[in-house]
Write a structure and sequence with these properties.
Blueprint lengths: L1 H45 L1 H16 L2 H12 L3 H26 L2 H9 L4 H31 L12 H9 L3 H32 L1
Helix pairs in contact: 1-2, 1-4, 1-6, 1-8, 2-4, 3-4, 4-6, 5-6, 6-8, 7-8
Length: about 210
């Protein structure tokens, strides 16, 4: 542990840069997943046959081993952060789509009929009634996606990406436990912090509901 703390003390600036790169990759991948996944979840909630197709395709993406998927993407997009971000986007899709779909389908049809009865259009009822009630489910999907993405991002260096994984793989290659822990511990803390924050948001959404 003494070597670990000494290494962190001497290299904290570099570690902050790696942590920022890690967070940035996860954030971009997640935002893309939200931009695509929530509309797909909404679409799936409107049609059962379509839901089966959308969820099946998202499941197929999730079944791919992480490294295999990144290698396939690397063939198309080359080495670098772009490949990692696209991989994180694809891995984050399933929890976002599935939880949006489940949340929306759990809303009572009676409430939707009441919303339409007071003159709301389908879009207005979706925006003001269905989505707010489904928010705890959607946040659960986001929570799962974030934690998974932080873990997946640690293997980014294998396809030319940045982030805390650089320290992890440098530590393994150089047989340097201090370096390995300097990458692994912050990555684990990031995952725990993100999970805690999203859990609080999820509880707040349930209370508001």
């Amino acid at each position: 542990m003494e070597l670990f703390f000494r290494y962190v003390g001497e290299n904290w600036r570099d570690l902050l840069v790696f942590a920022w790169q890690h967070v940035a990759m996860v954030a971009v991948g997640l935002l893309l997943a939200l931009a695509v996944g929530i509309p797909l979840g909404v679409l799936a909630s409107r049609s059962r046959p379509l839901a089966r197709v959308i969820l099946a395709l998202a499941n197929i993406l999730q079944v791919f081993p992480t490294l295999a998927l990144l290698v396939l993407l690397m063939v198309v997009f080359g080495l670098g952060t772009t490949t990692v971000v696209i991989g994180l986007f694809l891995y984050s899709l399933l929890p976002v789509i599935r939880n949006t779909y489940v949340g929306l389908t759990q809303v009572s049809p009676t409430l939707m009929e009441a919303a339409r009865g007071v003159g709301m259009s389908s879009l207005q009822a979706m925006a003001t009634v269905q989505l707010p009630l489904a928010l705890p489910f959607i946040l659960t999907g986001i929570r799962i996606a974030v934690v998974v993405a932080i873990g997946v991002a640690t293997i980014a260096p294998l396809v030319g990406g940045d982030g805390l994984g650089r320290e992890i793989y440098s530590g393994i290659n150089m047989n340097n436990p201090a370096r390995l822990y300097a990458g692994a511990v912050p990555a684990a803390l990031l995952a725990l912090f993100a999970d805690l924050v999203l859990e609080r948001l999820q509880k707040s959404a349930k209370i508001g509901k």
